[in-house]
Every structure is written in structure tokens, then in C-alpha cells.
Amino acid sequence: xxxxxxxxxxxxxxxxxxxxxxxxxxxxxxxxxxxxxxxxxxxxxxxxxxxxxxxxxxxxxxxxxxxxxxxxxxxxxxxxxxxxxxxxxxxxxxxxxxxxxxxxxxxxxxxxxxxxxxxxxxxxxxxxxxxxxxxxxxxxxxxxxxxxxxxxxxxxxxxxxxxxxxxxxxxxxxxxxxxxxxxxxxxxxxxxxxxxxxxxxxxxxxxxxxxxxxxxxxxxxxxxxxxxxxxxxxxxxxxxxxxxxxxxxxxxxxxxxxxxxxxxxxxxxxxxxxxxxxxxxxxxxxxxxxxxxxxxxxxxxxxxxxxxxxxxxxxxxxxxxxxxxxxxxxxxxxxxxxxxxxxxxxxxxxxxxxxxxxxxxxxxxxxxxxxxxxxxxxxxxxxxxxxxxxxxxxxxxxxxxxxxxxxxxxxxxxxxxxxxxxxxxxxxxxxxxxxxxxxxxxxxxxxxxxxxxxxxxxxxxxxxxxxxxxxxxxxxxxxxxxxxxxxxxxxxxxxxxxxxxxxxxxxxxxxxxxxxxxxxxxxxxxxxxxxxxxxxxxxxxxxxxxxxxxxxxxxxxxxxxxxxxxxxxxxxxxxxxxxxxxxxxxxxxxxxxxxxxxxxxxxxxxxxxxxxxxxxxxxxxxxxxxxxxxxxxxxxxxxxxxxxxxxxxxxxxxxxxxxxxxxxxxxxxxxxxxxxxxxxxxxxxxxxxxxxxxxxxxxxxxxxxxxxxxxxxxxxxxxxxxxxxxxxxxxxxxxxxxxxxx
Length: 742
Ligand code: ATP
Ligand code: MG
Hints:
Elements: H1 10-16, E1 23-27, H2 33-46, E2 55-58, H3 62-75, E3 84-86, H4 88-98, E4 110-112, H5 114-127, H6 137-149, H7 162-181, E5 183-185, H8 186-199, H9 201-210, E6 213-216, H10 224-233, E7 243-248, H11 263-271, E8 277-280, H12 288-298, E9 319-326, H13 327-343, E10 351-355, H14 361-370, E11 375-377, H15 387-400, H16 405-411, H17 421-434, H18 438-441, H19 447-467, H20 472-482, H21 485-491, H22 496-516, H23 531-541, E12 555-559, E13 568-573, H24 590-604, E14 607-621, E15 624-627, E16 642-644, H25 671-679, E17 696-699, E18 703-711, E19 718-722, H26 724-727, E20 729-733, H27 734-737, E21 740-741
Parallel strand pairs: 1-7, 1-8, 2-3, 2-6, 4-5, 6-7, 9-14, 9-16, 10-12, 10-13, 11-12, 13-14
Antiparallel strand pairs: 14-15, 17-18, 17-21, 18-19, 19-20
Magnesium ion binds next to helix 2.
């Protein structure tokens, strides 16, 4: 048997070696779906059934795509560069670059990321004098993207009421603005590419004839448009459809909020006439206790397709739970624990810190940073999203495409050049009446505004002239100087880090030319587009991933969403609290709650050997201190699997604060007291009838809650209790409340 196939179990082997036909592998976390998919690619190539050029594979994140290329490179002595393996957006971008004319785009079209898109929508509303209270920009963005992801252009959106009709009108105006400016938002990349294939028969036939094998990882998270795109590319319904090989797990569907449809799996099975769904049941990733916890959690969901997972790895260690008094305490403890793991020989990149919401990372980052522990954040405030980098990229975008109004407005007066808001308004009015881009309108502008903004346009033209023959990284270096960006941040006393980031952008460009952008696998065409445009799409699509290339051994920080498909020896899931995980916006309806539970299932199943769940009783989030109870997910895990590292109820007392009369502020805002509390043995406060701050209590009417603050003493003593999302926070007279410790 081929060496490739040696380490597969019987079901995996059957999946890898299926004949070229539609196949669906439906299996739980860590059962080897991705491994099967990658091995199948290698097997198809090795046995000569297909060539690198006639195969297309879709993964969910850039990190996953890179990992797949890496693994493939290790299995076979082939050049994987230039193969069509990437994310949906990445592959669509590539196709659109190659056929920009047919797609109705300028050659150098630029990609708007989510925040650019929001800025463009706000600008549109302003230009059209639309009340942004009636049409909140974010909500409109959601509306537009939702429709694009379902495949609806403005004329296809069903609008039964006036309000929706107006929103559809704005959607159309927004699309017109993007077209004028030569930019595409993320969902537009998908829809444009789909329409290109739909409308242009030669191009469609070309790709249909070319891609004989299409492989899709994380199929459960495809949205409607992506499914239709796959169907089209696979020449579904023709005499010679491509063999589509899809792997997925309904229990890990976590993008429902963005329009993903688990129903696609059912449709796929029916429409592509999948002969037999293959199930994989052995989990090779996680120790038994971790797997048991995951199985127990997900069992609470309804409408599952149903799978069993088992492992022969033994139970392993219990799941460790740490309940901290505050987020700061949580972060401190985690960092101490991480340092211990590293001292014991763990490699940092095998340790992940996961959180439900991006905002949680700040405290964790701060703590890691001040303890000198190397870490890397995926997602969140990514390198290419930092302010100074976006400024620099805006100059580059103007070089590539002067009609990009978003880029124009970002830097026309940055660094300041004395161009006032009035001048810009005049320019925008003129551009609207001529129906041209801002840049193209400038020469027609008279008077003072014409002179001031004309200077900016001349500067950009000069940049274009001087850099036209330079290699990419020198272009970047040049614009940093001539734009005045470097000088601007040099003059800023706090600009040092930003200056370093700008230098890092030059390195990123150099790196991009050397490594990421080399052509190409055997029998492949060169990647389309000029280096600058390719680099700019890379910046929009692959935001952040560049830093990881440094190969530094660093702790991995990311949201649970970003962790999908990945695995680590040790995983910390932080903030496992009601309101945070499950998220408060998802607690009130069953469908969203089930999505939160799948998210928890994804989080738990990332761990190989060691899993930590941490929570804090108080937390600063979005500028407010919040108090929370432990997450309901704790109740779904069998108690025997958990090891509570602190007393379940955090013992705490702060006598100096009690009896103070007025002071209802929660004591653990005071950090020094907090630190002390965490180390000193629990004390009881007589004032509170033996109850303590942080204690879990039961109230006859309100149920279980956590005491978060106390005020007054004796007969006047009052306690503030958080009874969770349904009941909320209550201030109760201690003498009347009849609280029972739980
Ligand atoms: P997820 O649902 O989280 O994406 P998955 O089903 O894609 O998980 P993989 O990531 O492919 O699972 O595999 C999980 C781990 O198990 C990997 O480390 C993989 O190398 C390992 N593994 C898979 N199959 C085998 C096998 N037959 N023998 C040994 N190890 C295996
Ligand atoms: Mg996988």
C-alpha cells in the first residue's frame, strides 16, 4: 500500500480512495476530516489521477489553507505554489483578477475590508443627505451583505414595505458608488465571481473543464452563494460534473449569524446524489475527558445529524477550572499557569488562549506583554488594520487605482496639508454632479480648494512617476517618505511603535515578493495582476497572517471562531460566563443559543491534552464593570470531569468596606485588595451573616445569584446580587432576603 495511506483507519481509507464521485464525509471534531481531505489530494496527485492544475480546494481560513499546503508539501515532492487552494474569497479574488474585464472591474480593483465598507456606507449616506438614525450604517451594511450572500442584487430583493424599498434603493446607490470607485467588498468578491461564471459561457466552460476535483473543508459553514458557486464550478447537472468531495460537521456550524446554512449539506447530498455518506467516529485529537465534556455539551442541542465520537487515548487529565475574582485576576493566573507549562517543557505555539469576543483580548495581551511572554493574536486588531498601516496602504491604493475614493479621503489630508472640510465637500459635490471619482474631479475644481487639493494630486502623480520601475518594497519605502507619513509619526512622541509598524510594512512587501508571490506549480499559469495590486489584495484578504511567519514560538490568541479546524496541546477557554459565553445577545432564542453551544463544542475540541476553563466574577468590558455568573455550559459537563482549582465560590471579604454606609461600589475594582484576597485564606464577614462577596446564594423568588457588593451594616446591611440574565441585578435588604448559601 502507498505510504500515504498507511496511517489511516478503515473509514478514512475508504474516504480517501473513493472513486471520482460526489462524496460527503460527515464527522465530529478531531476525527481526521481535514487529514482525509489533504491525503486525498496527495493520493489523487500521486496516483496520476489528476494534475495540480485540475484541482481546487477550499478551506475556511488563510491559516488553514497554509497548513494544508504545508502538509501537502510534506507528503509529496511537488511545488504547491500556484495551486488553487485557498479561501472562498481568496479564490474568487484570483478569478476576478484574471478576468477583470469580463467581470466589469478595473484591472486594479481594490478590496474593501469590513471597516472600509462601513466608512463607504457612511460617506454615501452623508452625500445623499440620508438620516443615519433612520438608516443606521451598520444595520445597512448587514442588510447589503446579507443580500449579497444570498445572491440578491437590488432588483431581486423582495421589498414589501416602504422602509425595505428605501434600503434596497440605498443598496443600489452603494453598489453604484463601489463601481464608480473600482472597489469590491468581501461579499461582492463572491457574488461578482458567481455572476462572471454564470454569464460568461467561455470562462465558465474553461473552469468547468479544468477543475475535475473540487474539495471543500468545513462544508457546514458555507452560505447559499458559496454553495451555488461550487455547484456552478462543478458543472452540476452536466454530463461531466467535477467530483466534489465535501467534509463537514453539523455540530461545528458557527456562522449561522452570517448566513451559513447547514441545509447545504442536506441539499448537497440530494442534488449531487451522494451515494453514501461516510462517517468517521474515532477521535485522534483529544484525551477522553475532553472528548466526554464535548460530547456532553453538544448532546443538549436538538436537530443534530447525530454522531458518536470515541477515543482510545485514555481519559487523561481532568478539565481544570479557575474562577477568578476579576478579569485581571483571571489574566494573571493564566499567565502564571502558562509560564509553568513552558517551564515544564511545553512549546508556546502549542498553547492557545481562546475568547468569545475580541474585546476580551486586551487584558490578556496586556498581562502577557508585561510578563514578557511572546504571543501572537489572530484576528482582532490585525497588522493590516492598524491605523498607520491603513494610511500607508491608502497611498498605495491610490497609486494602483486613483478612483478609489475611500483611499483618497483617508489620506488627502493626512498628514495635514491644510485641506479643509469645506474644500472636500465642494469636491464631493462636484464629483457627484460629474459622476466621476474625486481624484478625476480635482482638475475641474477652481479657486482655493482647487489649489490645495491639486497639490495633493500632483504629489501622488509624482509618486507614481518615480516608483513606476521600482520593485514593490521600494515603492512602499518611497511612499512612506514622500507622503510625509514617516515624518508625521517621527514628530509624534508616541509614534515609535507606529514607525516600527511602517518599517514592518516594507518587510511585509519584501517578504511577499520573495515568498508568497512566487510562481507557480507545474503546468500553472502565473498569478494575474501586477505586484502592487496583488500585494494590496493580500493585505485585505490575509490581514494579520504575515506576523506568524516569523516562526517565533508564541502563545496563540484568537476568538473561538478563528480557532475552527485548529488544534493545540493546551487550550484555555476564558470568560466562560453567562452573558459572555453564551453571549448575551444569543441567550434569548433557542437557535442562537444552540449556535453558542456549537461554538463551545468547537472551543473544547481544540484541546489535545489539557483544557482549562476560566471565568471571572467581575470584568471591565466596553468601559463598564460587569458581574456574571458561571456559564450554563458548566452545568452541562459532568461534574466528575471538572477539577475546580479555586473553591467553587470565591471566598472574599473586605471588612474595611463594609459598614461604610454609602459605598456600594463593588470591592474588587480595587486591585490591591483583590490581589491580597486571592492569596489570603477566606475569611467570613460577620456583617454579612456569614455570607461573602462572590458567594453563590439562593433566593426564594429570584433563584441563584452571586453577591457582587455589600453596603451598610447590621440591620441596614444591603447586598447587591447578580441573578443572571433573566432576573438581572438586585439590591436586597440582607435581613429580609433570606438568602441561602448554595
Ligand atoms: P475538526 O473538526 O476540528 O476540523 P478534523 O476532523 O478535521 O477536526 P483533523 O484535524 O484532520 O480532524 O485531525 C485531528 C488530529 O488527529 C490531527 O492531529 C490528525 O493528524 C490526527 N489524526 C487523524 N487521523 C489519524 C489517524 N488515522 N492516525 C493518527 N492520527 C490521526
Ligand atoms: Mg478540520
